Amino acid sequence: MAAGMEREGTVSDGRVCEDASAGIYLRFMTRDDTGLIVRWRNSEPVRKNFIYQALFTVHSHENWIRTMVDTGRVIQMMICDMASDKPLGSVYIRDIDRQHNKAEYGIFIGEEQARGRGVGTAAARLMLCYCFEEQGLHRVFLRVFADNRQAIRSYEKAGFRREGLLRDDVCIEGKYRDILWMAAVRPEKADEQGTTGGDTKYPAEVQI
Q1: For residues 165-189, b (16+ Cβ closer than 10 Å) or e, as one string?
Q2: Tens digits of per-residue pLDDT, 6-44?
């Protein structure tokens, strides 16, 4: 475990992990968060960055919880402000593969005032730390529109590395778009095997 990190049990009040320097913490999503999730996912600033752009409904989100979260295929958390406990967005891993110890990462910042100030990068670092330290995953990957430069920079700061470009991979509103494939590998495993990802570092303020 990296210096300055603590196990999940040391973070209280429902907080799974936190980053004091960024002023955020993660807690598990509950059904009480449904209204927020639906509102955020249907907002244009969030929806436009998702490959799946169909409008969310309460029913579809409840189905997501029942078929994905409750079955262990997804772990979803809320990103919250440490000072006010106000939810700012959500972060998750999906299609968790226990045979190969990998999962796909996703995030969205729902509150406008939380965008552009490093919340997404901090949340990604926290989630990667949780995935590697608590869930025992070896690899976390993501897909992002290749022209979403702001998101790509944030992911790289968090520890993800570019792996490949999928040209014209998806068709959004009649237009084919490129997808960039990125991933982070568990740091100590990467060091042992001489693979990429071993330079991932986490700030001392991160607690898990």
Answers
A1: eeeebeeeeeeebebbbbbbbbbeb
A2: 334 445 578 999 999 999 999 999 999 999 999 999 999
Whether 89 contacts 111, CB under 8 Å: yes
Specify which residues 183 forms β-bridges with.
141, 161
184, 128 contact by CB (below 8 A): yes
**104-141 residues labelled b (16+ CB within 10 A) or e (exposed):** bbbbbbbbeebbeebbbbbbbbbbbbbbbbeeebbbbb
CA atoms within 13 A on the CB side of 137: 23
CA distance 55 to 57: 7
pTM of the model: 0.85
- Residue whose tokens read 């939380």: 114
Name the token pair of 32. 């009480």
The string of pLDDT tens digits covering residues 91-135 is 999 999 999 999 999 999 999 999 989 999 999 999 999 999 999
The total of other beta-carbon atoms located within 10 Å of residue 58's CB is 11
Each as own residue / partner, the long-range contacts of residues 186-192 (CB below 8 Å, 24 or more positions apart, any chain) are: 186/132, 186/137, 186/138, 186/139, 187/2, 187/132, 187/159, 189/138
Q: Beta 17-19 vs 139-145: how paired, if at all?
A: unpaired
**Is 129 in contact with 187 (CB distance < 8 Å)?**
no
